Amino acid sequence: MGAASRKEPFRFVMNQPIDCWLEVPARNTGPGTGKRTAGVLLDLSRSGCKVRSSLNLRFTAGDTRLIIYFQLNETLLQFNGSVRWGWMYGLGEYQYGIRLDLTDEEEDILKHELDIWTMSSGGEGV
Fold this sequence. Notes:
Residues 32-112 form the PilZ domain. This is PilZ domain-containing protein. With 126 residues, the chain is mainly beta. The protein has a single domain, classed as Thrombin, subunit H (Beta Barrel). 14% of the residues lie in helices and 47% in strands. 24% of the residues are buried.
C-alpha cells in the first residue's frame, strides 16, 4: 500500500508520556462529570489520541464525550472528543482511545503544534 493511499493521519508516539487532563462536560452524567482528572497522553494524531488515566468512565463506545487538555509546546491545547474504546490497564488505571472532533481551525492549530513538537523533541511518527 503506497503512502498516497493512507487515509489516517500519522500518529505520533510520545517517547515520554505527556501530562494531560480529561474532563467529562457538565452536561453529561457519570464519573468525573465537570471535573478535570489527570492522565498521560501516549500517542496523538490529528484524528485522535490514546490516553491513560485513573478516570473510570464506564462508557458506551461513542457515547462518552470529553474534553482533553494538554501542552506540547508553549500553548495549552483544549479539544473536544469522544471515547472510542477503553479498558482497564492496571489496578485503578484505564486506557482510552479518543476521537478528536476538531474544527478546521483546531486541526490547523494541532498540526502546527505537532510540527514544532516533532522538530524540538524528536517525536516519532508511525
